[in-house]
Amino acid sequence: MSNVLAGEESEKVVTYGWAARDTSGILSPFHFIRRANGDNDITLDILYSGICHTDLHMVKNDFRISIYPMVPGHEIVGKVTKVGRRVTKFSVGDIAGVGGSVGSCGSCSDCSNGFYVYCPKMILTYSAHYYDGTITQGGYSNNIVVDQNFVVLIPKSLPLDGAAPLLCAGITVYSPMKYYGLAQPGLHLGVVGLGGLGHVAVKFAKAFGMHVTVISTSPSKKEEALEKLGADEFLVSLDQQQLQDARGTMDAIIDTVSANHSIQPLIALLKTSGKLILVGGPPSPLEVLAMPLLLGRKIIAGSAGGGREEIQEMMDFAAKHNITADVEVIPMDYVNTAFERLEKNDVKYRFVIDVANTISCMSN
Ligand code: NAP
Ligand code: ZN
């Protein structure tokens, strides 16, 4: 099969990806058409694609917004192969990255402030309606066409497999540290859940000079958290005594947990005026007792990714401080096993698909 279409559709290119067809969460090979590269667009040949837990939520329709067939992937690193005539930020051959958003209104206050991720018309990288009515498809595929305003440059010093997860996991933890004023030396941060987001949160927080306590359900992660990732303390969240001893000690907590869990014990760990920042997306509603919040003047808040400028800032900061994700690089056809393992909390700490070397142009 030719990968270039005939006639007036000739600008459009057939893309090879792996898609979920339903809530079973099983992915299989899938051919689809990406839009032609427009004046403001760049086309990337995808090299690496991280597997975020959000991809797992999405293939299972945990958030009730999934559109099938769905090619997941929003931690995308690739090589620029085409630039539109109005593209100023990129050249053919650049190594660039795409995160969770590929469009927004461009004129609301969030877009004007550079935080298009909060724009009510923000378009997700996959499983969303694009301006032209097509459904967006993500990075578990051999190429992607993206508006240049939603693409960042990957600093040359970063290994590309370890850099891919920064496009989502990295910015999702970096952004609230900056926005909520947490990125200060000596400030005590709790990081709940040592997974894809959590382990890069530890790395960024240490680079900011913070005192970091990992709050985890997995005692087996303790040694690595302290010795390899540089955390200062490790608290097993199922151990009541450890929770009791740490009450009132933390300035802020970033909660990255993907599953339903109680946040009440976390609120107790905060100092007066402490902030609990939720970045994980458990499928069910959380329960909160008001009184411990009132009496401690505590804040519960949320945060999503960031805008292009902030993602670029985070990437450059990561390059300066040698921060990348710890990854297990896998071939494309391992993705279903990777999802099974991710569900069982069996990855240290991010699966990254070696797309360029392992995706094959199989038929549907
Ligand atoms: P992940 O790699 O699976 O890590 C989640 C961690 O949560 C696990 O490693 C585990 O850490 C902990 N955990 C798992 N099940 C738990 C349970 N039942 N109770 C308590 N802790 C549990 O996932 P991720 O990719 O980091 O993503 C985490 C969450 O963030 C997902 O819900 C994802 O959708 C969301 N997310 C949000 C944004 C955003 O924009 N806000 C962006 C990306 C991802 P321990 O073993 O240390 O306990
Ligand atoms: Zn993500």
Name of the level-1 CATH class of the largest domain: Alpha Beta
Please report the total strand number as a whole number. 17
CATH superfamily of the largest domain: Medium-chain alcohol dehydrogenases, catalytic domain
CATH topology of the largest domain, which one?
Quinone Oxidoreductase, Chain A, domain 1
| Overall geometry | globular
User: What pattern of helices and strands is seen along the backbone?
Assistant: EEEHEEEHEEEHHEHEHEHEHEHEHEHEH
Number of helices: 12
Q: Label the structural class.
A: alpha/beta
What is the C-alpha radius of gyration, as a whole number of Å?
20 Å
CATH architecture of the largest domain: Alpha-Beta Complex
The assembly state of the depicted protein chains is single chain
Residue share in β-strands: 25-35%
Overall mean pLDDT:
95
Family: Belongs to the zinc-containing alcohol dehydrogenase family.
GO molecular function, one term: zinc ion binding
Pfam family, one: ADH_zinc_N
Protein name: Enoyl reductase (ER) domain-containing protein
Note down, in words, how this protein is organized.
There is one protein chain. Helix content is 24%, strand content 26%. The chain folds into 2 domains: 196 residues, Medium-chain alcohol dehydrogenases, catalytic domain (Quinone Oxidoreductase, Chain A, domain 1, Alpha-Beta Complex); 122 residues, 3-Layer(aba) Sandwich (Rossmann fold). It has 364 residues and is of the alpha/beta class. The strands form 4 sheets. Strands 3, 4, 5, 8, 9, 16 and 17 form a 7-stranded mixed sheet that branches. It has a 6-stranded parallel sheet with strand order 12-11-10-13-14-15. The chain is globular and about 60 Å long. Helix 4 packs across helix 5 and helix 4 crosses helix 10. The longest helix is centred in the last third of the chain and has 13 residues. NADP nicotinamide-adenine-dinucleotide phosphate binds next to helix 1, helix 4 and helix 5.
